[in-house]
Amino acid sequence: PRDTMTQIRVLGPDGDSLGQTEDHISLSYAYGDGGHKSCRLTAEAVSDLFYGLPVQGYCSINMDAIPVLTESVGGVTVTVPNDSLESVDSRFAEGAQVTLNGDDTETFVRYRDTSVSQSAMSRTERQQAYISAFGEAAGQAYAEDPAFVTELYRALEPYMVTNMGNDQFAAVMDSLASGDSTSAWTVPGETASGGTYDEYNVDDDALYEKIIDTFYDPEEK
Asked: Can you give the pTM of this predicted structure?
């Protein structure tokens, strides 16, 4: 969650590091330059949160890229996971299936009612629904035409900051297209009111177990 409280690096006006402090993980990006420095700071914060797990790749896109993603696969059909958007558009009732186009995708993945506590969490559920549905559609598009990944990469380049090359994007798409199993989980923890801003406090013991279960492959003797 964007409100996860963890150690992030703080930079001064001149860009020099002032050390680390506990704050919202989303702020790690804001201390950078909006480009590669922001991405590296975020990758560092995620790596530290995950007990030093290395983060080899990063990719950041701006809001103008969201319609590009959706239009690249001819629309993305999502199952609405909650009722957090229904008051804005009645189509987005919980459980409804909606095919998003380039115009309404940003609303689906970005909108939240800031007057409602923990509204970022329900928004995250919508974002997860979109990512899953887009991944499935993109995998199918790549299976039908391997040139899809190159075309998508070029379409995103004006809106994207990444240290990943086209070959790494192709490897991800190849995995999706081949039907490799994927899984997703949320960092275990609890929501809390931090006064001015919402917070999400990590359950360190539970997170450590998740990291071991997910990434540790014991060597067979």
From this structure: 0.87
